[in-house]
């Protein structure tokens, strides 16, 4: 495909009509319509090496196999904070994700008109967590908004109608969760 694009650009520069150019260009949209691979001499030249000195440079580019443990600093430029609350401090507990992030997500549906804030990984008494978040959001917004919630106790999900992701994240970080 890259050869066809280069050929197409060369034709545009040389002044051949666009009609002829559109006949040559073919979009490879699936496996069946893509060109058959040729022998390796047509592609980039490569050399197989088993030198440990050269392998060091390759290892730097590979992704880590395990997620590193985060630092305990609280003044990081990204605003990320470690989880300071322990299990049992509150009657509920919100576990972080495996990347040590807060499990608060915005679900957008109905062509962008429905927005639902979802909190995952909730353990303990999810009903007390729902009351506490509802009380906090009504204090923040006053009587301007009605805070509608839905609790899925088995899965440990709490859904709040509307886009409240930043407020819920702020509240969870203030609590140390």
UniProtKB/TrEMBL annotation:
GO terms for molecular function: structural constituent of ribosome. Pfam families: Img2. GO terms for biological process: translation. Its main location: mitochondrion. The keyword Ribosomal protein applies. The keyword Ribonucleoprotein applies. Keywords: Mitochondrion, Ribonucleoprotein, Ribosomal protein. GO terms for cellular component: mitochondrial large ribosomal subunit. This is Large ribosomal subunit protein mL49. It comes from Macrosiphum euphorbiae (potato aphid).
């Amino acid at each position: 495909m890259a050869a066809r694009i280069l050929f197409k650009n060369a034709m545009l520069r040389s002044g051949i009509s666009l009609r002829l150019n559109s006949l040559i260009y073919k979009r490879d949209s699936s496996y069946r319509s893509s060109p058959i691979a040729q022998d390796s001499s047509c592609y980039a030249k490569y050399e197989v090496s088993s030198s440990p000195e050269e392998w060091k440079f390759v290892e730097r580019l590979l992704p880590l196999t395990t997620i590193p443990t985060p630092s305990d600093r609280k003044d990081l430029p990204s605003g990320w904070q470690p989880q300071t609350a322990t299990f049992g401090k509150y009657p509920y507990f919100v576990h972080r994700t495996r990347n040590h992030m807060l499990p608060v997500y915005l679900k957008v549906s109905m062509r962008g008109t429905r927005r639902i804030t979802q909190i995952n990984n909730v353990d303990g008494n999810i009903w007390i967590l729902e009351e506490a978040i509802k009380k906090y959001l009504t204090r923040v917004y006053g009587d301007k908004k009605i805070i509608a919630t839905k609790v899925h106790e088995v899965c440990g999900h709490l859904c709040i109608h509307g886009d409240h992701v930043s407020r819920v994240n702020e509240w969870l970080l203030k609590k140390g969760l």
